[in-house]
């Protein structure tokens, strides 16, 4: 057996032995995130208890518009069509800007990543877009090249980006190679049995061609147990294949860029506002539709799921492609939401690099000045947001922030050495000697007092069981930068074409909090954004036991919940509404 095959088998065995912090082999109520820990045994946010005990004989005082800035929403979904925001000043389909706001036929919202030529579905990571700019300037630069202070800072960033890109590309290539192997077995079994989707019994009966396929069969069996069924595992593998295929073809491909062709804006003009089209669904509305259902799926019908809030209107704003969103589009999405009456904005997206943060900062300040609350997902890399960057965030690029940055420069990671290419795309990660290991700087909490928005809530994801695995294993965390946690594991909600599906992520936790904020505001309309934020944070269900997770040194640790978020708990609807009643 040659070395390449040994490496490939080792990688498969590694995947096979991975364990997850929360089991998916469990039957949860579809509405578990709205249930109560004491009454129902699931660490939900007590929404149903609040409706039953606090809101039963009360009527909301206002309908709250919640803007979902995302990748698109299926506005015809059976559980969403009656809770959509509608621009009553706009006449649908007449091709005219009836209300004079600069957006033609914006009946249910606006799409900032499209035009008359179509919609942008894929885009690069911000990392790749930045490398496209910096590589011609610095690819031949060495540490001995004379540079001024600004160039030195750019060169430092460039070296960090080269390392990050190399690691991301290697990881994506390795993972995609494994997904190809699994897909090959699944497709072979389907072809042999002349069926579209095989069963686990079909997999067991399949005679493997070699040791690699035998290992793949073991992975399929183990994955089916962990995901709760073979069907779920099969769908996850197919979706994973599509995601990593897109990552290599588009997200990490410096040669791919259809922005100018499909959007056609002047990308260099950060202040340009009027571009895009009215197709708020777009080519892939899975994520945004799921988020919308969590916030406000119709509670008055007998269909599907219950959203957290019962008197909301969902405004659809499309700015997120498959890839990283662009700062200009995010800023315009925020401004559109504010100008059209949104009181809460949900942002279930994020990235590791920034390009034009100033324009986003200005939009956040605009929302703050107009009394709009912003709810943002903390991210799914199990990273410490107190240490690692995650954009957008509540901190402004202010003079104070720039001064702090100059005084507290982060150490540069070692240059990435690409692995030697192999025919099957697999590679070994280069070893890092002791002399190249970078010791992290001690955490300085002073930076968390730098100028920032007061209308911002950062949300991590929790699981269903009240044990030491309560923190969802993928969720980012931060004692100073993640405000609260909310359910974000096996969340059942709306997906396109009148379907429902379980999804995981802080992308699911954020709309739980956005829905809660909207519910509070619908009964207490005079509350300011900072008050709603305060109420949500003060009323959490405190987690009094330790939780475990892997820290930035890849060590499994057990810590108090207050060490991974500001509030030290999981948001709770019942507690929040009771506390809101005391605010005058």
UniProtKB/TrEMBL annotation:
- This chain's protein is named S8 family peptidase
This protein's record includes keyword Signal? yes
The answer, when asked if Hydrolase is one of the entry's keywords, is yes
What CDD domains does UniProt report for this protein, alphabetically? Peptidases_S8_Subtilisin_Novo-like
Coiled-coil regions listed in the entry: none
Species annotation: Pedobacter fastidiosus
Which family does this protein fall into? Answer: Belongs to the peptidase S8 family.
Keywords for the protein's UniProt record, in alphabetical order: Hydrolase, Protease, Serine protease, Signal
Q: Please state every residue range assigned to the domain named Peptidase S8/S53.
A: 62-542
Q: What SUPFAM superfamilies does the database record attribute to this sequence?
A: Subtilisin-like
Q: Where is the active site?
A: 70 (charge relay system), 287 (charge relay system), 507 (charge relay system)
User: What start and end residues bound the annotated signal peptide?
Assistant: 1-21
């Amino acid at each position: 057996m040659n070395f390449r095959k040994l490496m490939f088998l080792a990688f498969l065995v590694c995947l096979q032995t991975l364990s997850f912090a929360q089991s998916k082999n469990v039957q949860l109520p579809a509405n578990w995130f709205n249930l109560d820990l004491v009454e129902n045994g699931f660490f939900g946010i007590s929404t149903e208890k609040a409706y039953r005990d606090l809101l039963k004989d009360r009527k909301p005082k206002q309908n709250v518009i919640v803007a979902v800035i995302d990748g698109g929403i299926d506005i015809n979904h059976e559980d969403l069509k009656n809770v959509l925001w509608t621009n009553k000043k706009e006449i649908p389909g007449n091709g005219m800007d009836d209300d004079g706001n600069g957006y033609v036929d914006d009946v249910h919202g606006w799409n900032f990543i499209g035009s008359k030529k179509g919609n942008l579905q894929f885009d690069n990571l911000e990392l790749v877009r930045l490398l496209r700019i910096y590589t011609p300037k610095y690819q031949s630069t060495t540490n001995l090249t004379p540079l001024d202070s600004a160039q030195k800072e750019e060169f430092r960033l460039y070296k960090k980006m080269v390392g990050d890109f190399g690691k991301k590309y290697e990881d994506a290539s390795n993972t995609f190679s494994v997904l190809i192997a699994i897909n090959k077995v699944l497709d072979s079994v389907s072809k042999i049995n002349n069926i579209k989707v095989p069963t686990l019994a079909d997999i067991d009966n399949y005679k493997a061609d070699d040791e690699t396929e035998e290992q793949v069969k073991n992975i399929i069996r183990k994955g089916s147990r962990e995901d709760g069924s073979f069907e779920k595992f099969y769908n996850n593998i197919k979706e994973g294949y599509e995601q990593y295929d897109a990552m290599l073809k588009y997200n990490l491909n410096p040669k791919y860029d259809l922005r100018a062709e499909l959007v056609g804006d002047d990308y260099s003009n950060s202040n340009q506002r009027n571009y895009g089209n009215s197709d708020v669904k777009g080519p892939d509305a899975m994520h945004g539709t799921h988020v919308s259902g969590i916030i406000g799926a119709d509670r008055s019908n007998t269909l599907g799921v219950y959203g957290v809030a019962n008197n909301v209107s969902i405004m659809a704003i499309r700015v997120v492609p498959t890839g990283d969103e662009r700062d200009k589009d995010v800023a315009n999405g925020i401004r559109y939401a504010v100008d059209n009456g949104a009181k809460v904005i949900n942002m279930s997206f994020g990235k590791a690099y920034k390009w034009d943060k100033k324009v986003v900062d200005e939009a956040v300040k605009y929302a703050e000045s107009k009394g709009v609350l912003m709810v943002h997902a903390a991210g799914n890399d199990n990273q410490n947001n107190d240490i690692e960057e995650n954009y957008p965030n509540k901190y402004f690029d202010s003079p104070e922030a720039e001064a702090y940055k100059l005084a507290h420069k982060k150490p540069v990671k070692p240059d990435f050495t690409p692995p030697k290419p192999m025919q099957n795309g697999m590679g070994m990660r280069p070893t890092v000697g002791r002399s190249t290991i970078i010791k992290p700087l001690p955490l300085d909490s002073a930076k968390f007092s730098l100028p920032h928005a007061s209308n911002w809530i950062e949300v991590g994801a929790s699981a269903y069981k009240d044990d030491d695995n309560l923190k969802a294993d993928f969720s980012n965390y931060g004692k100073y930068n993640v405000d609260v946690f909310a359910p974000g594991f096996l969340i059942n909600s709306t997906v396109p074409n009148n379907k429902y599906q379980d999804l995981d992520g802080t992308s699911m936790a954020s709309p739980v909090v956005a829905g809660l904020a909207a519910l509070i505001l619908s009964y207490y309309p005079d509350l300011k954004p900072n008050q709603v934020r305060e109420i949500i944070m003060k009323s959490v269900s405190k987690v009094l036991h330790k939780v475990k997770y892997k820290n930035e040194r890849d060590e499994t640790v057990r810590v108090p919940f207050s060490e991974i978020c500001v509030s030290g708990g999981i948001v709770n609807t019942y507690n929040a509404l009771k506390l809101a009643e005391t605010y005058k």
